[in-house]
């Protein structure tokens, strides 16, 4: 079963068309990357999947059922989690409280923080009582991924998780995503501008330009100059 199928979607902000017939698939136990420069529509694609912005036409299918009409909280309870651009940590809540915000879409009996979160990111365990706003950018990114994992997702969406993060933490995040893919069969859809990160992690790659998918293939395609050309400013 394919986890996510986005089929020929169009998305508008008023009269401006941000997505023009985008088709993307994400499969279990795979990391699918959507690469593209600033403003090509990557975040809009994720908004269409989470339900934060309606599509004008086309279909979004999750585990073989349409979710087009579902509100964001319904999609979250079905197993779609997002690590948003800019992390969106609550600065005045503690690390523990930030993680517990992930409980909102869970049944009462499931409202625990999985030990996996602390195994992947031990720093979160060390800082449980610290305020989110006191963490470094990299630690906040780990917290944002931890908060998404608390919801026990089947599909994990990440919006430019490497943005503004130091290289050692980018490596930790890459290791965590690979571990999740390989051990729990999680479906991961990652949108990025950082080519090397995608080249290392991705099983499958899409390149977006001006609201359209302009290339699709295996990660090795990123070694080809004509493919990289799409990503040059
Ligand atoms: N809320 C909005 N209202 C109007 N236009 C928007 C809105 N959000 C995005 N856009 C426009 O839609 C287009 C796609 O933006 P989007 O944020 O999806 O791109 P992106 O690839 O994620 O870029 P970035 O890397 O800068 O986040 C851009 O032209 C942007 O200006």
Comma- or semicolon-separated keywords:
233 residues, alpha/beta, Rossmann fold, six-stranded mixed β-sheet, four-stranded antiparallel β-sheet, 27% strand, binds adenosine-5'-triphosphate, BCAA_Transport_ATP-bd_LivF, branched-chain amino acid transmembrane transporter activity, transport
Question: Mind sketching the topology for me?
Answer:
Blueprint: E1 4-13, E2 16-26, E3 31-35, H1 42-50, E4 57-62, E5 65-66, H2 72-78, E6 80-83, H3 95-100, H4 115-120, H5 122-126, H6 137-150, E7 155-159, H7 167-184, E8 187-192, H8 195-201, E9 204-209, E10 212-218, H9 225-228
Parallel strand pairs: 3-8, 3-9, 6-7, 7-8
Antiparallel strand pairs: 1-2, 1-4, 4-5, 9-10
This protein binds adenosine-5'-triphosphate.
Residues 13, 16, 18, 36, 38-44, 85 line the site of adenosine-5'-triphosphate.
CATH architecture: 3-Layer(aba) Sandwich
Work out the helicity level: 25-40%
**Integer average pLDDT:** 95
Total domain units? 1
What's the story with the biggest beta sheet? Answer: 6 strands, mixed
Uncertain parts: none
Tell me the strand percentage band.
25-35%
Overall geometry: globular
Number of helices: 9
């Amino acid at each position: 079963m394919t986890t996510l199928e986005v089929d020929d979607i169009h998305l508008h902000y008023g009269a401006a068309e941000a997505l023009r017939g985008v088709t993307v698939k994400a499969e279990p136990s795979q990391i699918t990357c959507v690469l593209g420069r600033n403003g090509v529509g990557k975040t809009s694609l994720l908004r269409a999947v989470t339900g934060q912005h309606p599509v004008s036409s086309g279909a979004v299918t999750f585990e073989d059922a349409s979710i087009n009409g579902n509100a964001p909280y319904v999609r979250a309870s079905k197993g779609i989690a997002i690590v948003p651009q800019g992390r969106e940590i609550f600065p005045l809540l503690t690390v523990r409280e930030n993680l517990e915000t992930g409980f909102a879409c869970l049944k009462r009996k499931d409202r625990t923080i999985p030990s996996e979160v602390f195994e992947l990111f031990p720093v979160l365990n060390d800082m449980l009582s610290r305020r989110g706003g006191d963490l470094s950018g990299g630690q906040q990114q780990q917290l944002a991924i931890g908060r998404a994992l608390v919801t026990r997702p089947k599909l994990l969406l990440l919006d430019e998780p490497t943005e503004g993060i130091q290289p050692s933490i980018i490596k930790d995040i890459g290791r965590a995503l690979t571990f999740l893919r390989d051990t729990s069969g999680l479906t991961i859809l990652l949108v990025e501008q950082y080519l090397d990160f995608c080249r290392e992690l991705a099983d499958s790659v899409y390149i977006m330009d001006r609201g359209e998918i302009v290339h699709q293939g295996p990660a090795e395609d990123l070694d080809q100059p004509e493919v990289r050309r799409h990503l040059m400013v």
